[in-house]
Amino acid sequence: TISWKGLGNRVRLALNVPNSLENNFSINILGYVQDDTKAFVNDAILRDKDVLVEQYLPQTFWIEGQVPEDFKENNLNIGIDIFKSFGYEDEEKFCTIDVPVKVKNVVLKPLNESKFFLDLWQHPSCLARMYKVELWSDIHFEIIDNYLKELASLGEKVATVIVSDYPWAGQSCYKVYKNPSNLYEYNMVSVSKGLDGKIKCNFESMDKYISIADKHKMAQEIDLFGLLGNWCAGEFGNPVEGYKDPIRVRYFDESDKVFKFINNTDDLKEYIGLVLNHLIECGLWDRVRIIADEPNNPEVVKECIEFINSTVGTHQVKYKSATHDQNFLDRAKDEIDDMSINLKLTIQNYKDIENLKKKINNNGGILTWFVCCFPEKPNSFISSPFVENRIIGWYTYYFGLDGFLRWDYNLWTEDPWKDSSYKFPIWKAGDMFFVYPGKDLKPVRSVRVENLRFGIQDFELFTMLEKEKGREYIEVELMQELLNKKENAEIKGFGDIELGYSLDNCGYDKVKKYVLELLERL
User: What keywords is this UniProt entry annotated with (predicted)?
Assistant: First the structure.
């Protein structure tokens, strides 16, 4: 096709690979997005077949492929044929760029079989809002299916299940007037109160969400959001009188024919009991965790845990926390079965991580780490060097953790293609999402998320090599020069961490190549 400017200079790229691999390789246009400073960054891996290239703005491309397990050759050549034309002239081949690829006899499992515990939170209500479809409608679930399928390809292990309204209070979006955006998440459970005064629940949407996650093999764990550690009780309100956690559950009262919010602990206890017992009856209980996001008051958490436990009789409830507070980590870790600690706590406790992980793992739990709007680096912002996404997998192995958690997969501003800057400088563009909303109801991948994928693949290779070489060899001989010694990491202030890692992607590639050579000899 041609642009609105007409028949000017046109360039076409085509991949030239062996016929047997032509369906295994692809080339994509990289699309520009802007960070908070309005700098252009090639982050979006577009599915568009053409683009208008503006003068003085370089155009880059994303070429990827997968060599099948039964490929017999040691070398592969990828040719990139470049054609040019002008006006009505015949197209002519301008040049061919040959890219030689060495193929190692090492098989990497699909990431959904990976040991790396990836926990990227999903925001399903945002999907309905972005595509302007009815919440929990058939087309909404079609979109959810598309997004979970892509997420599962990264090796996601957790289904985000939201069982109350506005658990994050919309990230306080009601206070943000620059690039105003609706960030509220809604209950997956439809709640009503019958004429007899009893709470009733329709679990159809929740069950369907879990079923889709199961289909894509990304529901190893089912995390319930909205029952513990809800945000902004003071400024956003708490409808339940006498209960310290602001759980907000909207229901339809069949007697009054109006919507209300649960406002007493009797109804709240009945509601929580219905939700948890439904999951027990569905045979999902061993996978269920009730998660608290960044709690900082261990006494309130313990009090709420006792209340929740009382709703399911003798069944043991498992709890999980994304923690940034050392006091909470010290005082509440006996109540928490699964733990994710931020990078600051990871550094502060690096000598004790092995024992903490062993204790959590022995009880069937998982220990991960996370970054969020801080630290400045390493992180996954649009402005972050792409390699900082890759080293997530490296540091996960280096610190001896099970995996990585981040609150973002698909939470967007009103139009992330035009303006993804939000709450700057507290937040940075890209903090809220790893993928962009595509016009075809599917996610548009980013270079950031693909570098995260590379890092998880590297983690898997290290895990494979560990069986022969041991962890100490990998940490000291292969990783330490690039990642710096753990004891040299500095916490300079809130959000200011200096790990001392290399930003040279070639260095990480060099180690990966060496690991592949070692594995090939085994």
Answer: Coiled coil
Same domain, 303 and 358: yes
Asked if residue 488 is part of any domain, the answer here is: no
Is residue 301 a contact partner of residue 229, using CB atoms and an 8 Å limit? yes
Cβ neighbours for 220, distance < 8 A, ≥ 6 positions apart = 157, 158, 287
Is the backbone peptide bond immediately before 100 cis, with ω within 30 degrees of 0? no
> For the chain, first and last CA: distance in Å?
51
- Amino acid at position 128, single letter: A
Same domain for 413 and 330, yes or no, is yes
Cis ω for the linkage preceding 375 (within 30 of 0): yes
The reply to whether the predicted model has a pTM over 0.90 is: yes
Q: Mean per-residue pLDDT for 422-436? A: 98
In tens, the pLDDT along 129-148 reads 999 999 999 999 999 999 99
DSSP secondary structure string, 303-327? HHHHHHHTTSTTSPPPEEEEE--HH
Q: Strands, E, within 407-477: which ranges?
A: 436-437, 443-444
Return the closest-CA partner of residue 478 out of 403, 399, 394: 394
Q: Which two tokens stand for residue 467?
A: 């069986």
Residue type, 221: E
Structure token digits, residue 154: 């990264």
Whole-number Å distance between alpha carbons of 57 and 44: 15
Half-sphere exposure (Cβ direction) of 198: Cα atoms closer than 13 Å:
5
Residue with tokens 């093999």: 217
Alpha carbon distance 396, 116 (integer Å): 9
CA atoms within 13 A on the CB side of 450: 15
- In degrees, rounded to 5, the angle at the alpha carbon of residue 382 between the alpha carbons of residues 377 and 387 is 55
**Helical (H) or strand (E) element with 498:** strand 496-498
Q: How many CB atoms lie within 10 A of CB 359?
A: 14
The secondary structure of residue 445, as a DSSP letter, is P
Q: Are residues 66 and 146 in the same domain?
A: no
Q: Which of 76, 102, 128 is the last residue of a domain?
A: 102
Pinpoint the alpha helices (H) of 191-264.
204-215, 233-236
Inside any domain, residue 314: yes
Q: Mean pLDDT, to the nearest integer, of 317-339?
A: 95
